[in-house]
Design goal:
The protein is mainly α and 65 residues long. It has a domain of 41 residues. It is 51% helix and 0% strand. Helix 1 packs across helix 2. The longest helix has 20 residues. The chain is globular and about 35 Å long. The termini are far apart. The mean pLDDT is 87.
Length: 65
């Protein structure tokens, strides 16, 4: 009998995240992203998404001034 881990059945992204985005990073930028992701025990994709969302929020706050 085979059982599946419950976390394997769900996506690590929040509900509604279904549009992939490809971007290019330098080796240094990717290494920095990997270090940040490791520190927070996240995947590279999850860390990148978090930084993008936080960056958009900061940009929106700044542009409202």
């Amino acid at each position: 009998m085979t059982t599946q881990n419950a976390t394997a059945l769900r996506s690590p992204s929040p509900r509604g995240c279904s549009k992939p985005l490809m971007t290019h990073l330098t080796e240094d930028e990717r290494a920095q992203l990997a270090k940040m992701a490791d520190a927070e025990m996240r995947s590279l994709a999850a860390m990148a998404r978090l930084l993008i969302v936080k960056g958009m929020q900061a940009h929106n706050k700044q542009s409202r001034r």
